Structures are given as C-alpha cells and as structure tokens.
Fold these 2 entries.
Entry 1:
Amino acid sequence: MSPTIGGAGLPPPAAATAVVDADAAPTRRRRMRGPSLESANAAGWLFVAPALVLVFVFFFLPVAASLVLSVTDFDIYAVGEPSYARFVGLSNYGHLLRSPEFWQALKNTFIFALAGGPLTVAASLAAALLVNAKATRFRGFFRTVYFIPFVTTLVAVSVVWRYLYHPQYGLIDFTLSRVGVKGPDWLGDPRWALPAIILMSVWKNFGYNMLIFIAGLQSIPEELYEAAQLDGAGPFLRFRHVTLPMLGPTLLFVAVITMIGYFQLFAEPYVMTQGGPLGSTTSMVLLMYQEGFRWWRMGYAAALAFVLFLVMLLWTFVQFRLQRRSER
Amino acid sequence: MRPRAAVWLVHAALVLGAIAALTPMLWMISASLMPTGEASAYPPRFLPRTVTFAHYADLFTRLELGRHLLNSALISTVVTAVSLAINSMAGYAFAKLRFRGREKVWRLLITGLVIPVQVSMLPLFLLMKQLGLVNTWWGVVIPSLASIFGIFLIRQYALSVPDELLDAARIDGAGEMRIYVSIVLPVIRPILATLAIWTFLTTWNDFMWPLVILSDQSKYTLPVALASLVGEHVQDTELMMAGSVLTVFPVLLVFLALQRYYVQGVMAGSVKG
C-alpha cells in the first residue's frame, strides 16, 4: 500500500475543531494570556510555514499541474524543451477510452481491488477473532507474527514470492503436489497471474487490518455477549448478531483504506510479472509508469493518472454512502 | 463442541496461520544460505544441505549492495528526522496555536489526503528536473519531508494537550518555540514515536518514486537496486534471496525493537498502511 494516500485521515467531528473566536474573548483574559494576538498569529504561521511550503510546492502544485499536463501532448521532446508541448484538449482522454490497454488495466485494477480487498478484510477479521479469542495463549506472539509480513519491504517479498510460485521448484506447487493437486504455472498463466498477486497481497497486508479489528473487538462490551449467551445464542449467532454489528464502522473503514491502497497496485506486477503475461497483471499505475516514465508520453500518462484518481474518488464516495445507509 | 476441543481448534488454526505468515520469510533466509543451484532443484529443499555465506559476500563485494544499504539508511534517517520536526511543528500549530486562516488552510490540507500520490508524480518529476534534482538524493528526500498524514496524526494527538499548560508557560514569559520544545514535545512523545517508526518503514520500503527519480545505479536505494538485480540475476535464486534478506532485515529489526510504540499507534486507529 502506498503511504501518502489518505482514508485513515478523515476529518474529526466539527466539535473537536471548533475554535473559540479570539476577538470575542474578553479583553482582560486576552491580556492575561501574555502575547498579543499579532504575535500569536505570527508564531502560528511560522510553525506551519515549512510544512505548508513543502506540501504546496511538492504535492498540490504537481497535482494541479497534472490536470494541465493531461490536456497537452507533452512527450519525450517536451521533456527536453517544455515549450514543444501543445494544447490538445481532451484528445488524451479520447485516446485513452479507445485504448484496449487502458480498459484491460482498469479491469485488472478493479479485479485486484474488489477481490483482494474483501479477501484481505476477511483474513484480517479471522486472524483478529483467533488472536482475540478468550482461550488464546501467547496472544502477543501471534499478533507480532501475523503483523510481520506487513512491515516487510514489498519489493523484496515480491521477489521471494516470484520463486515460491515457480511451477517446478516453488514451494507452493510442490506442497500442492504433495496433496495430489497439480498447481498452475501461477505467474506464467494469464488466468492465474492476477490471482497469484492477490494471494500474495492478502498475505502481505492482512496483519495491519487485524490490529485495527483487535482494537475494535476489545471495545465491544462483554455484557452484550453474556446477554446473548443467556438468550441461548451459540458462537455463530453471537458473532452474527453481536460482533458483526458492533464492528460495523470499523469494517467499513478498513474496507475503504484497503481498497484505496489496492487501487494503487504497482510494485508487485513490476517485480513479479512486468504486467504480463499478455497484460493480465498490468495495473493502472503500472500502465501510467510505463507510458509516462518509459515512453515519456507524459500528457497521456497524466490523463491516465487523473482517471485513476476519479475512479478512486468515486469508489470512496460509494463506500461512504453505503456506510451512511448502514448507520441509519 | 466441547470447550477443550474448541481451545485445541483455535490454537491449531493460530499455528497454521503463523506457519503461513512466516514460511515465505523463513524460506527466504534458508535459500539465501544454500549453495548455488540448490534452491532451484527438484524436489525443493526447505533447509540447506550445507550452509554458505558466499552469496552475502558476493552481494557486498562484486555487486556492491553495501552502497545501496547505505543509501537507504541515509535517506530513511534524514527523512525521518527532518519530517518529524516539520510535521510535529505544523500539527501542533494546527491544534493549539491561533492564527488567521487556520481553519481554511486546514480544510484545504486534509482534502489532500484523498489524492493518490501517483497523480502528482509526473509533474513532480518535471519540477525536479527544473530544480536540477533528478538523479539526486535530495530528489528522493524533499517530497517526503512534509506529510499531510503526519501533520494530521500529530494534530489529532496534540488536541488533547491542555491549554492551561501552555498558558501557564506563556504567563511565565516563555516564547512559543520554547513552549513547543520543552512542553509540547515531551507530552506528545508517544505519537512522535509512532510517526517516527511509520516514516522510517515507509521511506525504507518506498519503491516507485526512487525508481522514477534515480537513474544512476550507484544512487539506487535498496529496493530499487533489488528490483534491477532481479532483471540480471533472475536465475540466481540463492543470490536474490540473500539480497531480499538484506533489504528486509533492517526494517524488521526496527519494527521488532520498537513494535510496542508502533502497534499501539495502529491500534489507536491512527496509522494507515
């Protein structure tokens, strides 16, 4: 998952941010507070200035420029001399919509997010329930072990899994053959390459969500389970009617941030398959990288980046609508 | 189901999960110690017949991976130290200092949280080119020095710092900088620890931006060097595993040593992946 995307960073409730209007405070109190308003004003701006300058120059400005870039024919010649770039209107977007590679990358990215997201969330929830079970011993040990894949370097584990997936020498197909299953040529078969990357991503990421679920589970009052038990509810019914509803908001939050991360799939196919075989693992970001930084079709790549952004925004919006409906 | 059987079942599932979580890592270590060719033989072995450190020696001599290790360590350390100062000052100011336009700027800033970083990358590269920072460490470092998420994290925590504490210091005549250093920083130490670990891990593990901005092989960070090594030495399983161990181990050690702070931060719902 990429570090810079939000989702976890949702704005706090308005009450928490409400600020007392400084001018409305009684004069006497203001004097007691020491520095004049002017100097407090200056101090505040000085404290945020370095961060603001960096964020605006190196993030917001490029994001805005990206929109401009996407309506130009900025290419390898323009990289050398920017004045060669010309305004081309929406033709990059038109080109995009007519390109089979784009549709394939969009499809791959959606499959990855819509299959990988729920699978990861399910694995995380299962792990959290197990680790948090009353009977469980060595809780801290299992929690740490399950979290380890998440902190490892994505590029390195992609390299490792590339070998694990080897049809002859890889441990995965070998283990399958032991139980009488003929494993597929995971990364060499267009039908299996994307599922293989999904499987690895579930392994890599479930530990993080597990921690959030454990925190959520621990906040469910014990009395609810006791009451359910008195009513004769077995473990499954208690899970269905106590755990799941109480975890509701956490579940959606986790699903949203997991899928937002998955929409940005890049390093796994870059290292394991280079987008192949037959483009079956080319993601939107990988396509953007190839178009923009390998072929230097930067105008076209910027259009791609923007479409990805819109898709993610739309998807997040849909998920929040679902959340609001479920809360009602 | 009898309770005893249930307890047994839970632990069986837990152990199975632990095996699944650790096997790829353990095989990576094991294969990195095998003599050349042993990791790509049939049937596959899990443990080396004879242990050899030849691949690690190879990495540090012929392939000069020590240089990339140093690059990664330097970049991650600088980013962590500087960004911690910049983000914590801003986060504290957004929480506790009053200045004109604060709410407007804050609202604008957090809208940035929903924009994927890849959208900024193409123009950012061109900007770096104008600044002469393509293919330099500064080109890798500078865009990471401030993070909206980091500012957000600090702000949420700093909101709980009591105003009375700050006002008392002001009455005593302390300047704002002094208050920040000697009162605020000690109070927000737990979240600083979480953010420091998170920043170090993400900077170390970062791949796409260093890949884009660095073109000289000698300047590559470890993940970029490893990815380019796969291209040339894909048949050399044991060597690649040694390279992976080298890449993963530093972050693993940082995590294991400091996991208390990190896990607390995540469980408080404050750190995202």
Entry 2:
Amino acid sequence: MIPFIYHDPQSLAAACLKIDHTDTMAIGGGTTLIDLMKLNVLTPKEVIHVRKVLPSTVEMRDDNLVIGAACTMASLADHTLVSGKLPVVRQSLILAASPQIRNMATLGGNLLQRTRSAYYRHTDMPVEYEGKKKSKSENSDADAFGDGVETSLLALLGNNGKLVGMYPGDFAVTFVAFGGQLVLASPNGERIVAARDFYQTPKDSFQYTTALKPNEVIKELRLPVTETLKNSLYLKIRDRSSYSFALASCSVGLQMNGNRIVAANVGIGGIASIPWHSAEAEQALVGEIASDETFARAATAALAEANPPSGLEFKVPLAKNTIVRALQIVRNQGPLTDEQLWAMQHGRG
Amino acid sequence: MTNSDGVRRRDFLKGVSVAAASSAMVVAQEKEHGSPSAGKKSASRSNVKISRSNVKISLMLNGKKKAFDIDSRTTLVDLLRENEHMTGTKKGCDHGACGACTVHVNGSRVLSCLTLAATIDGEQVATIEGISDGETLHPLQNAFLRCDAYQCGYCTPGQIMSGIACIEEGHAEKSPGEAREWMSGNLCRCSAYPNILAAVRQTAGAEPISDPAMPMSRKTEEAL
C-alpha cells in the first residue's frame, strides 16, 4: 500500500471540501477501498473518514425509505422498517458478501463497489484487452469477441460493444429497479439524482462511471415504498450456495389485480456494466396476465440487447431463466420468509 | 519452537518479513517516480514524494485500554499481530475473502484485514485471546475440541469469533441451513464444515452436546 495521509474530519462540509475521489478519497467501511489500496489499484494521497460525519439512520419520510449513507448493510437488513416488510431490500443485502463484511460496509460505499474483473484488480494483467471492440468477422475464431481473454467477470449488457467490467453488487440492483434516489452533498448544498441516472455505462473506461462530482459525497438513499416493493424477491444464482458474486441475479416486484399485472419492477445483476434496470421487461409485464408465457416474453425483452463476450454465452439463458423463476416465485408464493430463502439456498433434501 | 542455534521460528520469520517489506517499499517508490513501466495507473503520481504518515489512536483491546502511534496504513489484523504480538488472529487472504481474521469491534464480527485501524479509534476490540476466562475455555472453544471442528487449525480463531457472534445474533439455533448461511463468511480449506456446524449448533443449544464422530448410542453417555 502506498503511504497516505489520514483525516478524521469534524463535519461533512469539511470532508466534502477535501474529497475529489482521485487523489483524496472517502473511506466508509473500507471493504472495497482497503482491498484495492492493498493491490495498488487505488492510490489516494489522502483518505478521509466519512463514516462518523454521515447519517446512519433509517426512517420513513413521505412514503420513502430514507437511509443514511453510513448505515451498514447489516443494520439496514435487520431494521424494523425492512425486515419482514420489504423482502427484496432485505434479500439483496443478506445474500451479499458475508455477515462480517455486511457489519462493516456502508450503503453509500456499497453503491460504489468496483468491478471484480482481474483486468481492473491486477495492475499486471494485460491492458491491451481493455476496451477491445467486437469483431466484425463472425467466422474468424481468432477475432472472436473476447477470445483469449479472462471474460468471467465482464459485462454482457451495457458494454457498448467493448470488453468492460461487470458491476458485481446486489443491493444496487434493487435500488435501480425500484426507482431509488441519491442525495449528494457538497459544499454548494445538496442535489438529488435518480439511481438510474447515477450509473453511467463505460464509454472510454473499463468500468462504469457515476454522476458523483469532486467534493460530492453520497449522503442519503431514498427508496419509494410501493406495492411492488412489498411483493418482491431477490433471486441470486452463484457458483456456490453463499458468499459469492452473482452469475446472474434479479430484483423483481409485482403488483397484481387478480391474475393481471398492474405494476412491475425488474432489475438484473451479475451481467451488466452497471446495476441494470430493465424497462423493457417491465413494459412486457404491465397490463398482461401473469402467465409463464408473459414472463418468458419479459425475460427475452430484458436480454434482447445482450452482447456476450466469448465464454459468457451461457449467461443469456441463465439470466432469462433467473428472471422467469423469480417472477414465478413471486406469483406462486408471494414474498419469501428468511426460512424459505435458506431452504432455497442451502436445500439438501 | 527453537532450533539448535537458539533461533526461534517466530523471530526468524520476523527478520524475513522486515526484509520483504523493505524491498516492497523500494518497488513502491520506483513506481512513484514515474518509470515508463509504472503504467497509466500511477502516471498521475510521478514526481510526487509521499512519505509515511502516522496516526495516534486508542482501543479497548480485550477490555484493556491501549494507545498506539501507527503508520496510517495499518490494518487491524496487522496492529494485533505486528504491534501487539497477539498472533491468535490469523491473516489468511488479506482481502476479505476467507474470514480467518474475524474479530469483534463493538460487539459485531468484522474482518480485521479490511479494517483500517485509524477508523476505529476509541472503539472496543475483542479477539480470540480475550474470550476464555483464564484457563477456563469459552463454551465454543470446548465445543471445537469436542467436535474436532478443525484439522490444520488456521481458520479456527476466525471460526470461533464468527461462531460466537452467530450464536449471539440468533442465527445458530434455528435451521442448520440458516446456521450454514450465517457462518459462510469463514472458509475452511480442510473442509471441517460439518464439525464446525455441530460445534456452533451445540453451543447454541440447538443440538445435544456430543462428539459427531461417535456412534449414536455412545454419544450422550461419553460426552457427559
């Protein structure tokens, strides 16, 4: 780790004045920052501790769940406003990382989690693959999109035809799917940005960028508490039962009138450069009968633009089936209890 | 452990690690001074001299107040092992992937390898060294012995610290699936998972106290 100067500011205003997100970075729980600083991927000259100057409370305000950015993943998941009330929020938190990491990680930092791709995490990985474009010649194996590249943690959606890193987080998928908003604080005051606008797919970079400007810090998260949020599920498919990043995941919520879908929310994780909101899938669901055929059409619409690098073709049907299965569970069973969730994750007959 | 020349294994390793750390520092400084091979990620750092920076913190460490003057880069696991010579807490992956370094901060289980020590100034830290009452082991330590819940033992301090928190959180006594899920942040490469699960569940009172390796008929009798 490169030496840095550590600051424990007395106020959020004092913290914002210093933080530029390049030379001077904010530290919350440190679960991403310290990891990447040990790898010399991030090399700030100064580190500003923001956990104590940011709010960490959780409350209801005007039908919005308002979450202080310093609230930990564990505290939010266990909060009385969340546990047993907003299934997809709790599930996308407790199926992420491990209990230890969830006790440390703040929500503000969690939203800014970096890609896990080796091309980002290891400075000695060959950089010539970064930004490699899709080949025009379909028949040439040597020119195949991503051939010879370690593609496992690259993006299929929102890659703009390039080899770019996949966004690995879980909660942010729920946050974009259900129309969350961020309150960004700076010395000039506060502004509100929709989560769907906050994340920007990579154009010239290897991974996503955000709307966060120098001297701005995520202060608060707001999530509208809708009927779909109450009748919801986070389904996460991984290589092992727990403590693993998603191969594919989705946040879904349905509001029903009889067997007809009145409102729907769909987000997808593990396959896109940003936490992915699928307006296409929602459009295919709203106003329709909640049949398996409708769900299949929504899944097809969600993945229509998928552009898988070599070796990731399997993720297209995997993501589609994940969406269909999640929608079926919500339709057939409604919100799952924790006990049903463990049975699904660790079911051994 | 002492060899014929009277050099203790730990002292020898200390010498080696100082040498390794020094060479790592040289590499870091070469990179900073902008050699062409340093690449794009350190380009903006060329010609900038950065020297070590220290911070002063205090911790309630296993109930005793301790003051430290440490390099700002010091993580909690390094503070425990290198500054305090408390080597019970293990460094496994050093990247938050294995759980071997699990300790409690203010009663919650956390990863000491990703905890920057400066960020927990004034807070309470509990480690594996602090959980027994003198020679009387913590019930979960006894359960690990009884259930043979380890082979090499390297993950054990982290498993026990995580297990104590898991039981206190109430995640150990309901279904085995829930206990597995809430212990999943601690990897065991010897794969002693069934025995670890038994030790945690027995200590939580969810299963009768017994040695999982014994035939059912003998279990209760011999355990008593």
